[in-house]
Amino acid sequence: MKKILLPTDFSENSWNAISYALQLFKDEECTFYLLNTYTPIVYHMEYVMMSASQIGLEDVVKQQALKSIEGFEKRIEEHYKNPKHSFKSQVVFNTLTLEVEEQVKENQIDYVVMGTKGATGAKEVLFGSNTVHIFKQAKCPVLAIPDSFEFEKPSHILFPTDYEIDYSNKQVKPLVELSKKHQAKINILNVSYGRDLTSDQETNKAALSTFLKDLKHEFFSVKNQEITKAISDFQSKTPADLLIMINNKHSFFENLFFKSTINQIGFHLNIPFLVVPSKS
Q1: What is Dmax (Cα atoms) for the chain?
Q2: Alpha helices of the chain — where are they, by DSSP H?
Q3: What is the DSSP string of 142-205?
Q4: Which of 33, 60, 170, 210 is the most buried (most CB within 10 A)?
């Protein structure tokens, strides 16, 4: 039984991510946790000193959210009724990142699936700040769905790696599971700066090959190219329906996505992106 957390702010972007998750896991027994978090604008140090009428604002916000989440439940029932799927909904007074962390731990969540856009909706911002923080902090795989991306069964998975990871079964499990479930080919892309692989990298590559031995996969290598350009170029020439990366601290992943400001990312992704934590 899969346990999948679906954060939602009731936008069409978040509905799109929910829709993707329901179709991606349509053949599996799943419990989906619909989650909305809210922090009223007036939430600050003086919040506890407010009058009773002002404190009632929290109740108003919560009631509106409960009504919206009920609307999403009905929408799911209308479009994606599935006897294999059950749903639990929660509206919680908390920040999204803290609540996701708590939900993952409390409910032993297998995947978090969410939309990529931030509140600004600015074109130059690929991931909203919430998405980036959850990528960094989550103790389970996080799947980010681009705005307006329509579901298509993943038949080609792109897996960039620097082979600096001592791969474990837990780290490669989502890659193996999704490939097996959808008969998807895995294209492993290594990007280097002209140097040959070290003995440790060769060992890790061999271990990865062993994990993937029963799946259709192929190794590719690109030298002397920026990571983002290498991924974009590869994706333009080779089919890719899903990008999967392991968030290995101090690896190119961290350099790529966790710069000082989000709009420096400069990496425009148009396919779903699954980030697997290196440790949980």
Answers
A1: 68
A2: 12-24, 52-80, 96-107, 129-137, 169-182, 199-211, 227-237, 252-257
A3: EEEE-TTPPP----EEEEE--S-S---HHHHHHHHHHHHHHT-EEEEEEEESSPPPPHHHHHHH
A4: 33
Rounded CA gap, 174 and 188, in Å?
A: 15
Query: Structure tokens of 231?
Result: 């991924």
| 243 beta partners | 158, 273
Instruction: Tell me how far apart the alpha carbons of residues 185 and 238 are, in angstroms, rounded to a whole number.
Output: 11
Say if 83 falls within a structural domain.
Answer: yes
The answer to the question of residue 151 being in a domain is: no
The residue from 107, 122, 145 where one domain ends is 145
Mean pLDDT of the region 48-60: 58
Q: At residue 52, does pLDDT exceed 90?
A: no
Residue 123 confidence class, pLDDT cut points 50, 70, 90: very low
Give the position of tokens 């990571």. Answer: 227
What pLDDT is attached to residue 164?
87
How many Cα atoms sit within 13 Å of 167 on the Cβ side? 23
> Do 168 and 138 fall within a single domain?
no
Domains in the chain: how many in total? Answer: 2
Residue 173 domain boundaries: 156-271
Q: Which two tokens stand for residue 176?
A: 């193996």
Measured distance CA(4)–CA(104) in Å, rounded = 9
Read off the tokens for 280.
Answer: 């949980």
Q: What is the pTM of this model?
A: 0.87
